[in-house]
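Mods, move this if it's the wrong board.
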Amino acid sequence: MKSCLFQDESDIQSMRDLIARLPQKSTAIDFEETIQLDSIRARTRLWKNDRQLIGFAYVDDFNNLRFEVEPQFRSAQLEDEIIAWGLGCMKKRNAETGQNDTLDASFLIENAWQVTLLQRSGFVQENLRFLHYARTLNEPIPEHPLPPGFSLRCVKGEDEVENLVTLHRAAFGTENMTVEERLAIMRAPQYERELDLLAIAPNGELAAFCICGIENKNIGYTDPIGVHKNYQRLGLGKAVLGAGLQALKQRGIERAELGTSSENIAMQQLATTMGFVVISESLWFSKKVG
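Not the wrong board. Structure tokens:
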């Protein structure tokens, strides 16, 4: 077994192939979007058996360690190297930023080997959880029309990316979304501009968004969802989510999924109102880097 740094586009295809071979859904959340970023590629390490990729790990821009290993190649040595890689990435980042951030990780409760690895490696479980929701599209979708004067359209293209970033930041009250990150979403292989939905205010301002997409031939997703702080409590969240569900249904998708934090009560209420139910939970862990 040997390891190496990320090199080029052929490595992305190898990572896709590994993910496709996994017996369960990958825990590398938003892989196709994340791997478009140069910052992520610089923090990606690959493990190979001869020429076959058997595992990979990277630390994303939010300090989360993401990794996958083909089941038959799991070993204490490989697992320890993955953790060491994540800690090394965080030590370097903290040295560059002057911060003392922890290395974080999140995995489904049922992903026992990854949860056990984190616990064995000294990670501490946090109170925060990530809730995974789903609903069938074979049942009626609640109708929630836009308020008078508002309209719905899809994103026009990369020319309005700066406005999309401004909307995202205003909706969540953070600086997390960047132009580079939004472009990565729009340049991911599975991205469909027609499913990247916007609610437009009467004055022409971008008021809300719902980024939808198709994961496979039967499953679609409808998040992230956000409403500009100036237009909240008008029903825009329900309107754009409903439009997203209808768009997925028209494409023959049978099931829609979304996710949110256990602390995001508003999003949980929106999901429930629109017919979603919790199907699984992810646990969050953190480890001090030192």
